[in-house]
Amino acid sequence: MVDQTTSRQRPSLGQMRSSSFLQDHQQYKPPLSVSQNIGEVLGSQLTETLSINPINPDPERVHDSGVTYSIFNHQANPLETGTPRIVATIFYKSSKPVHPHFHPDSSPKPAAGEQLPLPHVPEGSAPTEDMDKFPREPPAPEPEPLDHIYGPYVSQLCLTNFLQILESLPTPYQRMNTSHRCLDRDAQPRVVEVTFSPPPDPKYLSFEDLRKHESIWRFEREWNVEVVLQQESVFRRHKRLAVFDMDSTLIENEVIDEIAKFIGVEKEVSEITERAMNGELDFAASLKERVSLLKGVPADVFDKLKSVITIAKGARELCAALKMMGYKMAVLSGGFQPLAEWLADQLGLDYAVANHLEIDTETQTLTGRLVESKPIIDAAQKRSLLKSIAAENNIPISQTLAVGDGANDLLMLHEAGLGVAWRAKSKVQLEAPTRINGESLVDILHLFGLEKEDILELTSRAQ
């Protein structure tokens, strides 16, 4: 006989179970992960809380305002109103691709008929490009030409590298706001405008030093580009006076060299011209020396020269666009007045100032001297003319543009609001405020922020 009392006290399986299967088998669950930190735990709870919407909106009455509200600050780097900005216009040098091997000894064996480039000094990096004038030590190694890897244009990686360089320049460190625009085309652009703010602290790095900074120079060599830096202002975009050098700027010729061809002294005159443009000779003295070699040349030589003068690529389009925007324009030349006036007529310029050659009225030939009553158009005179033309038209210097290529242009390039050394001599490229070595003078319009469509509209209406 079974004891009923004992059977009632014995536990049964049903009594051992709780109302929750999970609680019953808690010991079989894996241990909780302790890899989360307190921020992640609170963040997940906040997300769950914000995702709950206790109100079921009426689709007939609720409309999306288009405004997104958030408890987070998405404005990464707010800047005070009026913070200075700098504009960098980056030009890819498509006309001068850099060979991936700088020395034949480091190059693979060339194919039959292929000519590898000889060692050379990069244009604009030294006062001379003549290897014979350098010490016999081998030149410093050049940076690797990255455009051969990432594309012959201003690539995204090129821009990224540029922005990294900019952020490494300010001292002490400060986060920058940046933006960019492709000025010629959106895909594979040749010209890109980058705006960044704030600029480096001038107590540590002035704007003039920034323009010549070795990191930017190396960036240009690596990516085969040129960088023009300007302080952003309304006067950067809206100028009113443009002055140009003539020889090797608006025209591709050196006029005095062309005259020398008539009498067979081209070599002598060309050598003096080159040294004068590089700043190796006093301009006024060298001009008188060259002019003395022209004694006896017929006075009508300038009419004959017009047929051999080649107007520089893009000069007509540039001047037409500037004219449409209301610019006053001048050619200030160390050449000679008859051709300067002819060129001004061809391009629609308002002023033409150059040197005057003395003519023998009896023989109608050049005497080999300059007219004494007329000033020599040297560096100081060009700068003076820039200032006087600007004052005559009530134009502040900040709204002026000067373009030239020789040492006698440097003073006016530094005086102007924007001075551009266009395909200039090596010394001039080193000393000028900015430099461009493009194929067409139209590139200068990009420095004002004009896009390709803007330029096409200006030039088409001018025709």
Summarize the structure in words.
This protein has helices spanning 4-9, 13-16, 21-24, 38-51, 147-150, 156-168, 207-211, 214-223, 234-237, 255-263, 266-277, 283-292, 301-305, 315-324, 337-347, 379-392, 410-415, 426-431, 443-446, 452-462, and strands at residues 86-92, 177-182, 191-197, 225-231, 241-244, 328-336, 351-355, 357-360, 365-370, 400-404, 418-422, 434-436. It starts with a helix and ends with a helix. The protein folds into 2 domains: 86-106 and 117-232, no CATH class; 241-462, Rossmann fold. Mean pLDDT is 82; it is low at 25-29 and 101-106. The chain is built from 20 helices and 12 strands. By secondary structure, the protein is α/β, with parallel strands linked by helices.
Task: Jot down its keywords.
463 residues; alpha/beta; Rossmann fold; 2 domains; six-stranded parallel beta sheet; four-stranded antiparallel beta sheet; 20 helices; 12 strands
Summarize the model shown:
The chain has 463 residues and is α/β, with parallel strands linked by helices. The chain has helices at 4-9, 13-16, 21-24, 38-51, 147-150, 156-168, 207-211, 214-223, 234-237, 255-263, 266-277, 283-292, 301-305, 315-324, 337-347, 379-392, 410-415, 426-431, 443-446, 452-462, and strands at residues 86-92, 177-182, 191-197, 225-231, 241-244, 328-336, 351-355, 357-360, 365-370, 400-404, 418-422, 434-436. It is 35% helix and 15% strand.
